[in-house]
Amino acid sequence: MNAREVAIATSITLMIVLLAYVIEAGGLGPIAPEKLRELAASYIISTYNPWNITHSAQSLEAVTAIVWDYRGLDTFFETSVLFISIVGVALLFRGYREKTGVGGRGLSEIVKTSTKILAPLILIAGISIAIHGHLTPGGGFQGGSFIAVLLVLLSVVFSLDFVVERGLSTSRLLTLRSIGLMGVFATSIALLLVGLVTGVSAYVFQNMVREGAPVSMPPWFLDRPTGGTLLFFNVFEALAVATGLSLAFIVLSLRREEVEEALERGEWYE
User: Fold this and answer.
1) Within the chain, what is the greatest distance between any pair of CA atoms?
2) Gap between the terminal Cα atoms of the chain
3) What is the pLDDT of residue 116?
4) In a domain, 24, yes or no
5) What element of type H or E holds 180?
6) Which domain holds residue 103?
7) DSSP labels for 21-89?
8) Secondary structure letter of residue 175 according to DSSP
9) Residue 260: which H helix or E strand, with range?
10) What is the DSSP letter of 213?
């Protein structure tokens, strides 16, 4: 290590030690407020309340319940905005076709070997963060972002050709992104369709049984709470985010040969 690397490592270590000391000494003040506001208290009480399922999301994670149950319509439009931005990136670079043989050989064998060990762990961690989002901090967006990092890592370590040769083309990623968004949409109207078929009242983004709306998503799977729609929302959101961010990375990593081919066809100017 040279002097610059030593200085950076020392600075990071000192920052971590000082921050830990400040927190331990109470320098940041009380981490949690002594008294919750009534609105916050009602969310915490009702998020997981098996004794009164009518006023509960059946989720142990309050943030996920708020994001996908209590304000699910807002979250759906936020997801749609991200999807539209990904489509915009793809449209700006229309005519681009992935080419192999122009992406280099990647990094050293040592780095590649360590990445082969880390890659499945990153994938499993991302999936776990997504499917446990209604039980522990995390969720679909966090899990999907975690998985998208894997593609970036593989592209850097093994080259972009390595990723493309394994079927992760922009067209396939865009298709998977669309499936994820449609899955979110289908989950949001599932109970409404059940209500229409059975002739009972139901709502868009309905999760558990509500007053005047007797239909419900399954709150349990064996001995584990599912959060009803929350599990499905997190899975589809993770798929949409992982593929969307991966697509954007590939498109923004255009090689000169691919750009020149698209320009020669004139598709960017149609």
Assistant:
1) 74
2) 52
3) 87
4) no
5) helix 170-198
6) 60-269
7) HHHHTTTT--SS-SS--HHHHHHHHHHS-TT-GGG----S-HHHHIIIIITHHHHHHHHHHHHHHHHHH
8) H
9) helix 256-265
10) B
Indicate the angle between helix axes 109-131 and 229-251, nearest 10 degrees: 150
Residue 16 within any structural domain of the chain: no
Phi, psi (rounded to 5 degrees) for 212: 80, 0
**Considering the entire predicted model, what is its pTM?**
0.78
Chunked into runs of 10 residues, the chain (270 residues) has average pLDDT values of 75 84 69 67 81 83 87 85 81 64 70 87 92 88 91 84 78 87 92 90 87 85 83 92 87 67 53
Contact 178, 90 (CB under 8 A): no
For the chain, the domain total comes to 1
Q: Note whether residue 7 is domain-resident.
A: no
* 22 is a domain residue: no
Residues with Cβ within 8 Å of 242's Cβ and at least 6 positions away in sequence, in order, are: 126, 143, 144, 145, 147, 148
Q: Could you give the C-alpha distances from 254 to 96, 112, 216, 243, 259, in angstroms and in order?
A: 8, 22, 47, 17, 7
pLDDT of residue 99: 60
d(CA 32, CA 15): 23
